[in-house]
Design goal:
Strand content of chain B: under 5%
Largest sheet of chain B: 2 strands, antiparallel
Number of helices of chain B: 11
Largest sheet of chain A: 2 strands, antiparallel
Order of helices and strands of chain B: HHHHEEHHHHHHH
CATH class of chain A: Mainly Alpha
Number of helices of chain A: 11
Oligomer: heterodimer
Number of strands of chain B: 2
Strand order of the largest sheet of chain B: 1-2
Shape of chain A: globular
Helix content of chain A: over 70%
CATH topology of chain A: ABC transporter involved in vitamin B12 uptake, BtuC
Helix content of chain B: over 70%
Order of helices and strands of chain A: HHHHEEHHHHHHH
Strand order of the largest sheet of chain A: 1-2
CATH architecture of chain A: Orthogonal Bundle
């Protein structure tokens, strides 16, 4: 029973890390319709930057976070502006964008392994990672921070989409780009803005995941894919759906450890995805943004 | 000289992989990132069967073909109804599942993370134990594969397949089921890739699950895109060049931890560059449209 509660809690915490990725990816995907696999590049490289600034250059935690945040915004917008946008201008093929995005992930992964060596990098242990014991249950402030931050991201995105002018313009662009243009919305600026916002919001996920274990060049791609799956499950343009789907996947990944060996976890996760997509080719909640 | 034949054998194997991927890629318009899964399936089956003492090469080939076509048909039937972006994610999912299966099968069958000492193939009493002899085998299989791919693109089947890619509805209107054509394309491509896998593990005499990941799938995609999708010549050229360049890198006497990432970095850069400048590849004629 104690093991079950422990796994439940771990699952919730990992589910929330996935949720951060999923909700921010969902914002970008539902608006610009680009399959931005390179979303993982943003948070993995930010984690490495934070590692470098904090442990090697001895910057303060606040300054580290601020520079990493700036980097993530610049990188996210840069990927859109210098890679996706010219392709859309030229051929408009979603596949070409996807291959570019996949290639950017490969470049980043291998560039980081050349720069920092492939061995895992450990962020210094701090107050966040100190274990807290409740009877036989072990948690840390890191888990709680992850959960709270994931909820914050969800709230920010919902508020952004419904409560701000630019957010409503984003929703309009997402559901009908042509109509948005005819109403005088500069959709290029909207796309650029969602890339910036999505990248900024996902940046802490890299550090949180890094603090949980260690930072490796390849830590992002698989988690990012699970985030993408959550968006498909939860419905495109439906951040709450994606959030719930991410947490369910996180829980399944952990609780299943009671019955199966950990080497089968990705089979389970991706098997569920295939099963769901087979029964419901449009995802469980469908596409909300195209009503 | 031995090294020279080593490179030639690798070229043969990768030409099979890239031309077979091009069947689904350019003819059927299916973008799959799970080609390494088929390659690994063939390699693993050869490793297990020949370790178990089965030396009849034709028997092993038949088993590989049967299993690969079954897997291809299952994947195709499951996922081809899904369109566009979602299919790519589905093929990614298959690639991840395949890796788990490779990893666990190796662990259960050998107790280690790698299968060592896989016997070299023996066909009609000839032991393919030197690089020169092995190149002969690889070359023959490659030529057969190229012939199949070439025939396929010229045949009525190939024409219908291209029409499926361009306008699925029109094919339905002619009374043909587009799904059947796509399934056949994926099965043929899977069979060829898994035969390449057999040659690969028979040559290296070792099976490492880590070699058959999404990284390899991407490398094969890079080969097809570099050479140009839509013709056998383009995919072969891509494979040849992208096998030779990394070999040249390994001549630079860099440590092994640098060579691997450097090669993959190169594949990534080639993909990005070609997508920006010439998405149809060096020898390709058509634009990539899905």
């Amino acid at each position: 029973m104690n093991l079950f509660i422990q796994l439940l809690f771990n699952g919730l915490s990992i589910g929330c890390s996935i949720a951060i990725i999923a909700v921010s990816f969902g914002l970008i995907y539902s608006t610009s319709r680009t399959f931005h696999i390179a979303h993982s590049v943003v948070f993995v490289s930010s984690a490495y930057l934070a590692y470098f600034l904090f442990t090697t250059a001895k910057f303060s935690a606040l300054l580290t976070l601020m520079i990493s945040a700036l980097w993530s915004i610049v990188l996210g917008m840069g990927i859109y502006y210098f890679f996706y946008k010219p392709i859309f201008m030229k051929s408009g093929s979603g596949l070409v964008v996807f291959i570019t995005s996949l290639a950017l992930t490969i470049i980043s992964e291998n560039f980081l392994s050349l720069l920092f060596k492939a061995d895992p990098k450990q962020l210094p242990q701090n107050i966040l990672t100190n274990p807290i014991k409740f009877n036989s249950l072990t948690l840390s402030l890191l888990d709680i921070t992850t959960i709270l931050y994931a909820i914050l991201v969800l709230v920010i995105i919902i508020y952004f989409l419904n409560g701000t002018k630019i957010g409503r313009m984003t929703k309009a662009t997402s559901s009908d780009p042509e109509l948005a243009i005819s109403k005088g919305i500069d959709i290029e600026k909207i796309y650029l803005f969602t890339y910036g916002l999505g990248s900024l919001l996902v940046m802490p996920a890299g550090i949180l995941i890094g603090l949980r274990g260690s930072i490796t060049p390849g830590m992002g791609s698989s988690l990012n894919m699970i985030g993408v799956m959550s968006v498909i499950f939860g419905g495109i343009g439906n951040p709450i759906g994606a959030f719930i789907a991410a947490i369910i996947l996180g829980l399944i990944r952990n609780i299943s450890l009671l019955v199966i060996d950990s080497s089968w976890i990705s089979t389970l996760t991706f098997g569920i995805f295939l099963l769901v997509i087979l029964i419901q080719p449009k995802g469980i909640m469908g596409d909300r943004s195209k009503n | 000289m031995d090294y020279f034949f080593n490179v030639l054998i690798l070229i043969c194997i990768y030409v099979i992989l890239s031309t077979s991927l091009d069947i689904v890629f350019s003819n059927a318009g299916i973008f799959s990132v799970s080609h390494a899964a088929f390659f690994g399936t063939g390699a693993l089956i050869y490793a297990i069967l020949s370790k178990a003492g089965i030396s009849n090469y034709l028997l092993i080939i038949s088993i590989v073909v049967i299993i690969a076509s079954a897997i291809g048909a299952i994947i195709a039937a499951c996922t081809l109804r899904i369109r566009g972006d979602y299919f790519i994610i589905a093929s990614y999912a298959f690639q991840m599942i395949a890796f788990d299966i490779f990893y666990n099968t190796v662990r259960f069958s050998s107790g280690a993370s790698v299968i060592y000492a896989i016997p070299k193939p023996i066909i009609f009493g000839i032991v393919f134990d030197t690089n020169t002899k092995y190149f002969g085998l690889a070359l023959i299989v490659m030529l057969v594969c190229l012939y199949i791919c070439w025939r396929l693109s010229k045949s009525q089947f190939g024409t219908v397949l291209k029409a499926v890619k361009d306008d699925e509805m029109a094919i339905q209107a002619t009374g043909r089921n587009p799904l059947i054509f796509k399934i056949k394309a994926l099965v043929i491509s899977g069979i060829l890739a898994s035969i390449a896998g057999m040659i690969y593990s028979g040559y290296l005499t070792i099976f490492v699950p880590n070699s058959f990941t999404i990284d390899l799938s991407t490398a094969i995609i890079a080969m097809v895109i570099f050479g140009g999708s839509g013709n056998v010549l383009g995919a072969s050229l891509g494979a040849t060049v992208l096998v030779i360049i990394p070999q040249a890198i390994s001549f630079l006497q860099l440590p092994a931890t640098v060579v691997g990432p450097l090669q993959r970095l190169l594949y990534g850069l080639i993909l990005v560059l070609f997508m920006r400048i010439r998405p149809e590849g060096l020898l390709g004629k058509k634009k990539l449209i899905v």
